[in-house]
Design goal:
With about 500 residues, this protein is an alpha/beta fold. The chain contains 19 helices and 25 strands. Bound molecules: adenosine monophosphate.
Length: about 500
């Protein structure tokens, strides 16, 4: 099965439905998209051999969808790269993936083009909105190339906060499993529904192109190419049945946006990629109604470890509603999830351990990195590096990345638990808790706090302390508070705790 068949099938069944839009303006129907992809694939196949890698260093744009499907159609592997990386990081990824060809949007071409000289494997950098791209799209269409399920489709580079990024090899089987699991456990998509790509298409939002193409949904890219709350509210008036994949920080910015713009045409916000605090989740439910679904995944098991559907978010009369909202939901139908001890033995419900995953979405392995594969995939389970616990009904509560757990006086402290408590203070807008090394305790807890309104005085430390003493054990209380204007975040909205820890050393 080649993923390119998903597009061929939709174009056959729903040729006239809109496939791509920039802002409110439709740029292709399904018939047009499929025809263009078959021509672009032929253009690529003339220059490249099956399994070759093609890098996409591109801001969000409709051509992203064309290029992904053209790569698959031609039997090639796409390497979508975070467009916000430094040229040195791009250089590493281009060389590591062995990309022979790279496409870049015009805003990035000047930074990327010179890399053709320094990266030996890279033969050419082509502007994804220029005349050479148009020429590639104008040849004779080709038939979909044959692919085995285990062939690489997408190299997904990890954010590399603790070292060099690693290329996660996602196969046709992995991404098909992710697509089918979406329909099973996240949401339905009707032909003609829409996804607005406000988060980077090199990551989660781009992965969700697949279920939307599979059911002839419209892929709309905001004019700005990114996230702007006012623009999103305006776009909601242009399309119907709208889904967005959003990091929790984006959801919060939508909720905090002034005004009461109509959200009738919003169908679903799928959030994930970082912790959603219960108070923020409730605020979003009261702003949008029962339109929230959550996923927990990682590049190594793309978008597909656990999910919490809209119905669970809406069931506020459930006796364990609060705990459920604080969780990341239950294992996807086609996925095995285990919480394990240090010897990879399953732990009983309620006990905290590393989260292990297996099933069809789990990556084939890291690209050209046998050592990391042996470690991460040992015993046939993906070792996520995340720590959490399951309840008796299979709801998984994430504690933290194992490397973020604070060990103070021999006890484990999970930052998220402390963060949830501090966020209850009305003067706190955002907070991140990290460990600072300490000669006496090993580590002590430090909270970085962003005030809700920068004009107000920072929330009183004694009040924050009192709040902690009311809700969590004394030893978990921060020993110090640092007031900051903003938290450092990466382009997918994750708080960079490593940067915060550097501020303490
Ligand atoms: P990435 O591979 O860049 O998508 O990052 C994956 C990591 O993000 C996971 O290993 C988790 O630590 C975190 N993450 C993903 N989804 C969630 C979620 N729903 N809640 C909390 N953290 C999450």
């Amino acid at each position: 099965m080649n993923l390119a068949q998903l597009l061929v099938r939709s174009a056959n069944a729903w040729p006239a439905l809109p496939a791509l839009a920039r802002g409110g303006c439709v740029t292709s129907t399904y018939a047009e998209l499929a025809a263009r992809v078959a021509r672009l694939a032929a253009g690529l196949a003339q220059r490249l051999a099956p399994n070759d890698r093609v890098a996409l260093v591109m801001a969000n744009c409709p051509q992203y969808v064309e290029l992904l499907f053209a790569c698959w159609h031609a039997g090639l592997c796409a390497v979508p790269v975070n467009a916000k990386l430094h040229p040195r990081e791009l250089e590493f990824i281009l060389a590591n993936s062995g990309a022979r060809l790279c496409f870049a949007t015009s805003d990035l071409i000047d930074a990327v083009a010179p890399l053709a000289a320094s990266v030996t494997c890279l033969e050419d950098v082509i502007a994804a909105d220029g005349p050479r791209y148009a020429a590639l799209c104008s040849g004779v269409p080709m038939a979909v190339a044959a692919r085995a399920p285990g062939d690489a489709a997408w190299l997904f580079y990890t954010s590399g906060t603790t070292g060099r990024p690693k290329g996660v090899t996602l196969t046709h089987r992995n991404l098909l499993a992710m697509t089918l699991n979406y329909f099973f456990d996240v949401d339905a998509i009707a032909p003609g529904d829409c996804i607005v790509h406000a988060a980077p298409m090199s990551h989660g939002s781009g992965l969700y192109i697949l279920p939307h193409v599979a059911h002839a949904g419209l892929n709309a890219v905001p004019e700005s190419g990114g996230f702007d709350a006012a623009e999103i509210y305006a776009l909601l008036q242009a399309h119907r049945g709208v889904t967005m994949f959003a990091a929790p920080t984006m959801v919060k910015r939508l909720v905090d946006h002034p005004g009461d713009a109509d959200t009738t045409r919003l169908k679903t916000i799928v959030y994930g990629g970082g912790p959603m605090y219960v108070a923020d989740c409730k605020a979003a439910l009261s702003r949008f109604g029962p339109k929230l679904a959550q996923i927990y995944g990682q590049g190594e098991s793309p978008m597909t470890i656990t999910a919490m559907d809209k119905a669970t978010h809406a069931a506020s009369d459930h006796p364990r509603y609060e705990q459920r909202l604080a969780s990341v939901g239950q294992a996807f139908s086609g996925v095995g999830v285990m919480v394990a001890d240090a010897a990879d033995r399953p732990l009983p419900a309620g006990e905290i351990g590393e989260i292990l995953v297996r099933g069809d979405p789990v990556m084939a392995g890291y690209w050209d990195n046998p050592q990391a594969n042996a470690e991460t995939l040992r015993g046939g389970w993906l070792h996520t590096g995340d720590v959490g616990s399951l309840d008796g009904e299979g709801f998984l509560t994430l504690k933290d990345r194992s490397k973020d757990v604070i060990i103070s006086g021999g006890s484990n402290i999970y930052p998220r638990e402390v963060e949830e408590v501090l966020l209850r203070h009305p003067g706190v807008s955002e907070v991140s808790v990290v460990g600072k090394s300490d000669p006496e305790w090993g580590e002590v807890v430090v909270a970085f706090v962003v005030a809700r309104d920068p004009r107000d005085a920072a929330p009183d430390q004694a009040e924050l302390d009192a709040l902690c003493l009311d809700h969590i054990a004394r030893f978990k209380r921060p020993k110090a508070y640092r007031y900051v204007d903003a938290l450092p975040k990466n382009s997918t909205g994750k708080v960079l705790k490593t940067e915060l820890r550097k501020l303490l050393s």
